[in-house]
Each structure stands twice: as C-alpha cells, then as structure tokens.
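Notes, p. 3: input format for complexes.
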Amino acid sequence: MAKAKATYTCRECGASFPKWTGQCPECNAWNSLEEAPATGAGSKGPKGRGNWTGTASARVVSLAEVGAEDSVRRLSSGLSELDRVLGGGMVPGSVVLLGGDPGIGKSTLLLQVQDAMAQACTSLYVTGEESAAQVAMRARRLGLQPERLDCLTETSLEVILATAAERRPAFMVLDSIQTLWTEALQSAPGAVAQVRECAARLVQFAKQTGCAVVLVGHVTKEGALAGPRVLEHMVDAVLYFESDSGSRYRLIRAVKNRFGAANELGVFAMTDRGLKAVGNPSAIFLSGASEPAPGSCVLVTREGTRPLMVEVQALVAPSSLSNPRRVAVGIDPNRLALLLAVMNRHAGIQIGDQDVFINVAGGIRITETASDLAIALALKSSLREKPLPSGLVAFGEIGLAGELRPVYNGEERLREAAGQGFDQALVPEGNLKGVKARMTVRGFRTLAEALAAI
Ligand code: TYD
Ligand code: MG
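Output follows (454 residues plus thymidine-5'-diphosphate):
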C-alpha cells in the first residue's frame, strides 16, 4: 500500500498545499503552514466529484420523524451555574471546549463535574498533564468519592479511543487537548495539525457513541485558545474560564453554544473545597461602598439570558501629556473614544485635555452598547467631582447624533435593579413604555438631557 501523502494546511486561512513554504500563497501569512494528514476527501466517491451516479444514495429524513427526546435528556453537571451556561446541562453526544489560563481551575471544575456525573452514568477522566496520584489527591481535597472516579493517564489518541470504545463512558473529559497526539501525524503533541486531528476524531467519537465530551484547551498569551480557530468551529460549545487576577471569583462565558444562549455567564467562587456556584452574582459586582464616590455608576447589563448589575468607574484627571491617555479596562477602547467625542460635540463636555481611565469592577467585560449612558454619567461625575445619588442605575445606548436609543429587555433590567434595592433609574425614553417597576424611572431623549438631569 502506498504511504498516505501529507499535505500542509495554513492555520490562518485553511488553504492546503502539497509542499511546505514559509509564506502561505493564499493569505500571505508567514510561517503558518502545518502538516496535516492526507484525508483523501476529494476521492471518496468511485470517480471523484463529477460522478453523479454509481454511488449509493443516503436516506433523507423529515425532522418531524426525528425524536426530540434525546435533545431534552441533558446531563446535569451538578453545578447550577455551569448547567445554565450550557443551556440546561450537557447534551449527550456534544463536544464542549473549555479554555482558560493555567491554574484558573479547569481541572478542578471538571473533576467536580465528573463526580456529579458519576452518580448517574459511567464517566472517564483522561489526563495527559498530571499523574493519577495528583488527580486522586485533588479529589480527596475536594471531598469527592475517589472510588467512583475513573481516571486514565494517557496521551495517545488511539489508546484513548480504544479504551473509551470498550468502557463506553457517557461523559468523558480530556485534559488537555494539547497533550494528545495521534500516530497519523509526525508532528509533536500541541502542534496545530495534531490538535485539530485529535479534536476531529474525538468529535466523531462523540457523535457516534453519544458520549458527552469536554476538551480542555490552553489559552495563548494573547488570550485566544491555542490551536487553530478551526477547533472552535468543530465543537458544539466553546466556554472560556476567566477571572480577575487575585480574585477568588471565576467567570465562565459561553462564546459559542449550539444548545443554548451565547454569551451566557456563570459565576463561581474558588474556595478551599473547590468551585462553588454563586447564585446572586449582582451582589458581588457592586462595590458595596456605603458612601457613593465620584466617577462611579451602576448599570444593568445583560449577559446571556440574565440581567446583571455591574459598576463602572471613571477617573478623569488633568493630563501632562500632549496626547492624553485613554485607558479602558472591561469595555472596548474604541467605544470610549466614541463616547468622549459624542459628549464633547452634543453635551458640551470638554475632556480633550484630560487623562481618562475606565474600569469595570469585578473583572467583568461588557460588550453591550447598553452600558453607554452609565459610562457617560460616570465620566461627568468624575470630571465634576460630584458623586451620583446612591440607589441610581442607568442604561441606554448613545448614538452619534447624541440621541439615547432604547435597549432590549428594559423591563427585566429594571426589575433586577429594583430587586437589588435601587430606587432610581435613568433610561432612554424608548424604554419607558409599559414599565411597571417599583422605582422612579426617568426617560430621556438625548444624552445632553440625561446629563443635565443629574
Ligand atoms: P487547576 O484546576 O489545577 O487549574 P487548571 O487545570 O486550570 O490549570 O486549579 C488549581 C488552582 O486552584 C490552584 O492555584 C489552587 C486552586 N485550588 C483552590 O483554591 N481550591 C481547591 O479546592 C483546589 C482543588 C484548587
Ligand atoms: Mg489542569
């Protein structure tokens, strides 16, 4: 039999070539070609692509015939916050990629999940990073029952798949995908081609056997999952585990989920006995200061399917630089530049010669434009050195013409704020319709009106 010929695939654009070159001829990225196994995809049929007949056809099903029950029967991870992020638990046959910085608690979380799963089904924890003794030590420290936790220390994909095919686990963890290697490739474990090939085979395994698989992925210095972007396309859900440095709170964010809301956020606290779900996260993101401080404003953002109260802090100070500093932590710096320009042009607030710093408390990242109004209020409060009234929340999107645009789920946000004890809200006029919140809600058409009102 002729030896399968290797091809080289660009990790940036995915184009493949028979030979290695230093620069990808397709996208001009440097040093991005990686060895990939020859799949022979083009020659699967008897005579290649142009052959319309001669291949047996497959059965097409109407979706009505397909039972919905298997999508409902989800496996609970035992942690309410993780179940929420997954959209109600793990779906059998799905593959979840969990990324995060080293030491953030990925292995801890998954060992706890395995313990919960093991009560209902067979499970397998495959680790290529630690010895079985280390995992056992962690399990004891977490107060889990080690006798029902099955662990396999192995890095060869072929051995792992053979073992899994024999034991038929309903839940399997691979910690981590970067340590796995397959015989089909010559490159070292962790190389892009290895990671992709191993992940593809595991996805195939999950779909065929109905086993729910979790892949742990390392994160690069830039914060992206190490390995090609392709990995994120192959799996059903991509979760990021993140935290503010030094904080004991951990956030899990779903950046992609085929079985639930994207951008859903789960909050955990790392304790000496592992991770505990935090049921009322709004409480931990508010500073809890009794005296309101200048430059601080509380807003109601919406992460996934849940409203969340967070505090934005602004510091505006005269600058000695010809190009004053603009630093944004937790929001998009471009959004800050845009807001400063609108405040200058439409509300007459001059911040051009000041250094501006914005920070979102609790290490949370806000991607919503609904935070615009709160940021503008915090900026003005810091500039004038006057605190905003306590018990005040604000949300609303600011347009380039200085108008306040309504945001979705306004009613739900107000209910959350009222529930947390806030008694005054500044919102876009468009969000006033039909509001029945137990608090004073004031609506404004423009940013200038809202800023003048405080
Ligand atoms: P770990 O799960 O090993 O991280 P990862 O797999 O993401 O690299 O987490 C290890 C960290 O968690 C370590 O710094 C110690 C801390 N930790 C606790 O605070 N409490 C615990 O009960 C455990 C097991 C770990
Ligand atoms: Mg680990």
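The chain has a mean pLDDT of 87.
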